[in-house]
Amino acid sequence: MSWFSHYNYWIVIFLMMIGLYIVICRDNLARKVIGLNVFQTSVFVLFISIGAVRGATAPILAEGFTEYANPLPHVLILTAIVVGVATTSLALALIVRINEAYGTIDENQIQAKDGDG
Amino acid sequence: MLAVTAIALLCVRGLFVASMLTGIYSLLTTALFVLLDAVDVAFTEAAVGAGITTVLFLAMLSKVSARHNDSSTLNFQPLPFLVVILTGALLVYATRDMPEFGDPQAPANLHVAPKYIKDGKKETGVPNLVTAVLASYRGYDTLGEVTVIFTAGVGVLLLLGRKRRRTSGESGEE
Asked: In this predicted complex, what is the ipTM?
């Protein structure tokens, strides 16, 4: 077993950790949503790379092909992408509301205003 | 390349630049999905990830006035960085038990996928297996997905609609 047979997982983990770091370290709420998106995409890539089969083709039945990639992860990720957009839109709507209520979308400033009154 | 864009996303100033970079990031993900034989997923990611998400971000930015545009550089914080590195190291350690990339004998490829590939055409009459599984075998998932989207839509309308009633005449998106 060679070391490079797992590089797809390493890419996924790298992207995931960047997303996590953005979520933790950025005070701007919109930035946090972007970080969540990056994290989410890394999970998509994980599932799709699990479904990939060496020497296979896209899972559309056709003459002359016998090896197909696993269609099940594709279906799950299709659903997940659409749900991800739904949650992103909800988060962005929340940001707009927070901006109306507090006049800022910076986490520290929001907490400071909460502390005042 | 995806990793480079992600790092740029981490470091870049200005929300507008960041949301544009999100679109580029989605596009690169789409290319990766095509390489991994997931054409249907690539379609969806291109339309939804690169398209709608960018539009949503731009709509949000137009609502949130530009003076809050964060121009703060990323100041290095050691404790979260340590947490992130530790988590990443643990996950890398865990991949030692995972099957190799593209292994046809991986557990994920042995359970129901062969049945879908063998009987899918006969049982559903759709040559595209992703469509067959999505609409036929796992139709309830899709129903649940529609429910989630409906709930999210109602949530967005509730969050943004109240303001519109209070200050009438303002045009809202969504």
From this structure: 0.77
